[in-house]
Design goal:
This protein is about 50% helix and about 20% strand. About 5% of the residues have low confidence. With about 210 residues, it is of the alpha+beta class.
C-alpha cells in the first residue's frame, strides 16, 4: 500500500479508532457510583459499579440493605458482567470496520458503540427497578415496592442515597459522541483522474 493510500485509510478510521479505544478503556473504570448514608454511617458508604464487578463498600451496603430485604449488590447483572469485556471489544471492532464502509453498513456497524451508554443506563435502571420490586417480605423493615434512585438523591426509611454516573460512563459517552460526529462527517472522497483525458470525478474512498 502506498504511503498516500495508508494515510487516507488512517484518516477514514482515525476518529472511530480513538472512539473504540476509549470504549475499551472505559471498561477499566467505574460507570456508576452510589453513596449510602445511615445513622451508624454518617460519613457514608460508597459502592462503585464497573462493567464487570462492584467495588468499594458494597458488602457493608448489602448488610444495611438486608434490613429492608434488598438483594446483595454483588448478585446484580451476572450475565452482563460476564460478557461485558468481549462485548465492548466487539462493538469497538465493528465501529472501526464501519470506518471502511459506505452506505447503510457504515451506520449499522457503528450503532452498537454509539448506543452503548444508553444501553448501560437502561440495563442499570431495569436492575434497580427489579431490586426495588423483589424485596424479601420477611425483612425487619417492610417497605412498599419502589424504584431506587438512578441519579440524584433518594431517601428510604432511615437510608439516604446519592447516585451519579462516574468517570467510566463519561468516557464511554465521549466515545459514543466521537463515533456519531464521525458518522455525520461521512466518508472522505478522493479525486481520481482517469488515464484518458476528461474531467476529474469524485468517488467515495473505501
Amino acid at each position: 500500500m502506498k504511503a498516500s493510500a495508508r494515510q487516507r485509510a488512517f484518516r477514514e478510521v482515525g476518529t472511530v479508532l480513538l472512539a473504540a479505544a476509549l470504549l475499551a478503556g472505559s471498561s477499566l473504570l467505574p460507570y456508576w457510583r452510589i453513596v449510602l448514608y445511615a445513622p451508624q454511617y454518617p460519613g457514608g458508604l460508597q459502592a462503585l459499579v464497573y462493567l464487570t464487578h462492584v467495588a468499594g463498600d458494597a458488602q457493608e451496603i448489602t448488610t444495611l440493605n438486608h434490613y429492608i430485604g434488598m438483594k446483595p449488590l454483588e448478585e446484580a447483572a451476572p450475565v452482563e458482567r460476564a460478557v461485558a469485556v468481549p462485548v465492548v471489544l466487539l462493538f469497538g471492532a465493528l465501529a472501526v470496520l464501519s470506518g471502511t464502509r459506505t452506505g447503510p453498513w457504515r451506520w449499522l456497524l457503528r450503532l452498537p458503540l454509539v448506543l452503548f451508554p444508553l444501553g448501560f443506563t437502561a440495563d442499570l435502571a431495569a436492575w434497580l427497578w427489579h431490586y426495588g420490586h423483589s424485596m424479601d417480605p420477611a425483612a425487619p423493615i417492610r417497605l412498599e415496592p419502589f424504584m431506587p434512585v438512578l441519579l440524584g438523591t433518594g431517601k428510604i426509611a432511615q437510608f439516604t442515597t446519592i447516585a451519579q454516573f462516574h468517570v467510566g460512563f463519561y468516557v464511554a459517552l465521549l466515545a459514543s459522541l466521537l463515533a456519531l460526529l464521525d458518522l455525520r462527517r461521512g466518508p472522505q472522497t478522493e479525486v481520481v483522474r482517469p488515464k484518458a483525458a476528461g474531467r476529474p470525478v469524485e468517488v467515495p474512498a473505501r
